């Protein structure tokens, strides 16, 4: 690793230096948890979104870049009808014909982002249909009768939904590993057995309490499958006295929509144990209770009639919520059972939230508001040591970038670009990296945009890559210039035609009267170039490349002891070399 001469004066400003009104302020960006901004305020800030944010401060020559790997994510052409509404369903005896475009058909959201879907689900929550006990049983019969499903299939999908919802809310971590699944004698218990298997494969450590086994091949098969995974079955009487000590999550799969009356032994006692768990004042240690379809012991329609029943933290309604779910006040209400066909939706007029992307579960009620200052992730990563990183920061960047691609991260080439104008005012936005080589980072944009104006006044810029799933971020700072026109030209024509037209339509960062303006202009251009002829690159569109003077590779670690390795340029014997230093987290 190149070691510098000690007399060198760094060309960058330390993040700890205070800003002066430099004529060419240099932007610096880093990801912070919102908590650090709210910590000193007397009243806690409560927001409903848990998002890291980008803080930007302003302080005071090139080769052809390597295009990012061809499979690197590209924005979807907004005009491509990649998600079509489902075709009208075949009419089945006893079911009304499906109305195409009926308002209650669940439409998948255009993007698979859970946050977007959660918002959509929240908006729809008020209108979600709740089923009576009779309708729930009738739907069950129809699914397994004229609609051709088998009980095994439905149970498998229901159990998978439960496991997926549990994993979404209680992410696998030291605090959320040990799961007790208490299974009842019917299909609700079967859902629990299936969920136990999926949770095992997701990495959790499930144990099962299944005191009244049903002697049918479906159930004994599920038990055998769990036994083959060495999942312990604990008799009810052998359950540990203090469930809080032994389990992080308890899945209540005792009774579903066929429950009547009051619970009989041994479930009366088991339910009582879950009730007393929610009463214990020691909230730090209380395991999360997740009820499958119905909180066991609740009246299927009336809910927790005398108020003394289970108070689950999470409810996973299956197929559609039952009436009792209206009384559920816990923080997490999910829908599972992504198998409801249009004949059922139409016949029962079901309004259900859309499932995001390929997910097996959908949040029904908005995620609870959180005190942002309490949000903190305990990062667990391999150590990032000076002896392990590459001497050249570009090589190190490419290594991490390739790992992000291999890990299947969505748009690993998305980066926050921070520019600063003449007055020292910074602005940030996400852009897509389109090329990187041993000297520069390249992206394309509109030369009339705000970032372009900023860059024309001040060529200093900062890039920030944030690979959340890998606990990594990379900061890059340097100066920016336009890429040669031929390069922009070449890249422009490699883009999908829709994106080319979009670039012509958008006079980026200018105020427009409405969305129709874009759509109209786009339509006209689409018609103009419908013969497939070459779409000329507008002169106001092209690339920029940043030549870095500083890199920082950050890797989140436990207890905030993060790794931060900074590469800065130093002159050594007349040559510029990269110098690596560790920064305190
Ligand atoms: N579309 C659907 O209808 C689907 C239903 N599924 C699951 O199936 C459940 C319904 O299953 P089941 O109809 O088998 O019924 P449950 O699992 O709700 O429970 C029925 C069993 O509990 C017993 N029981 C009822 N009341 C009792 C009491 N007071 N004390 C003690 N035991 C009592 C019954 O004798 C029977 O053995 C749903 O809630 C859901 O979890 C899913 O597996 C898949 C899809
Ligand atoms: K249940």
From TrEMBL:
Cofactor note text: Binds 1 potassium ion per subunit.
Disordered, as annotated region: 1-42, 60-111
Reactions this protein catalyses: (6R)-NADPHX = (6S)-NADPHX; (6R)-NADHX = (6S)-NADHX
Single Gene Ontology BP annotation: pyridoxine biosynthetic process
Biased composition (Low complexity): 64-82, 91-104
SUPFAM superfamilies in the cross-refs: FMN-binding split barrel (SSF50475), YjeF N-terminal domain-like (SSF64153)
All residue ranges annotated as the YjeF N-terminal domain in the record: 136-352
Keyword Flavoprotein in annotation: yes
Role played: Catalyzes the epimerization of the S- and R-forms of NAD(P)HX, a damaged form of NAD(P)H that is a result of enzymatic or heat-dependent hydration. This is a prerequisite for the S-specific NAD(P)H-hydrate dehydratase to allow the repair of both epimers of NAD(P)HX.
Name of the protein: NAD(P)H-hydrate epimerase
